[in-house]
Amino acid sequence: MKRFLTVFLCLITLCLSFAFSACGGGDKDTITVCMPDGAPALSMAKFMSEDTDFGRKVEYRVVGSSEIASCVTSLDETKNADLCVLPVNTACKLVGDGTKYKMLGTVTHGNLFIAAAADAQDLTRDNFAEEIAGKKVGVVNLPAFPGAVFKLLLSDYGVSDKVTLSPVAATEISGTDGALDYFVIPEPAASLRVGNANLKLKIAGNLQSLYGEDGYPQAVLVAKASLIENDGKFISKFMEEMTAAADWLTDEGTSASTIITAIAAHYPDPENTAPAFNEKNLTKTVIANCAVKFTGAETDKDKIIEFLRKLKAAGDAAATEVAESFFYNGSK
Domain check: are 144 and 226 in the same one? Predict the structure, then answer.
């Protein structure tokens, strides 16, 4: 029994060590930039494709969404990422006090869609409350960010108690069985399911437009306060190039293969990683639906505060108030 416990503890230690090593590094001269796979990784695919270093030694790392929180929470701060992309509610909960990290800006502005059978009613801001009431809705990642945003919408439209929500896997979504009326699903899975002619599905709604004209902040970029203090020029250069990185994605000269290769080259364990994107699902439409656009923290501050307030009111435990100092204002 003692031997078993020893082996078990060693395995746990190795797993934790791998999780943390996937985010930060021991080389104090290397700047580590970590992001979850999917839309957040798209925001920096240009940098990874071109090995952009901004005059420093930079290491980009793309990890699974379940691992990204560990990239900023190690007790050994040298193992934490210098820059990291996080869901906005997770960022505010983990580092929103502004002491160790500051938010540089928003990198994605919502990639959640509502799918339904081809003959279902489309959902707009004018008819959402009436049409969704009494319906059964399957939500991919119901306990996480997608579920939180949809619950926010139900609260905003005054129908929180009139809709039945169920967790569903993207691969289980079908418009033909009638068990569920609508599905909340992120890209690229949304386009994949709708693109399967056998499922007879369509995009019936867009959570971004249902929330408001400019959508909502979904993933944000944070940087260590110490890096901002010690190398503000690097931070400025990095932020300046984020807009060009978004434009590069939609340029007709940028192929899906180039983007996918760039991202895959930065998985810590590529042989055991299932990529979010492949050449079949990474179309220009999907890229556009991922809403990759960089806006600075100063610009988005009020919007994020309001979004967090609404998430919290709708019951999202991860949504917390943030300190004024969390928002980077372009100076040390």
Answer: no
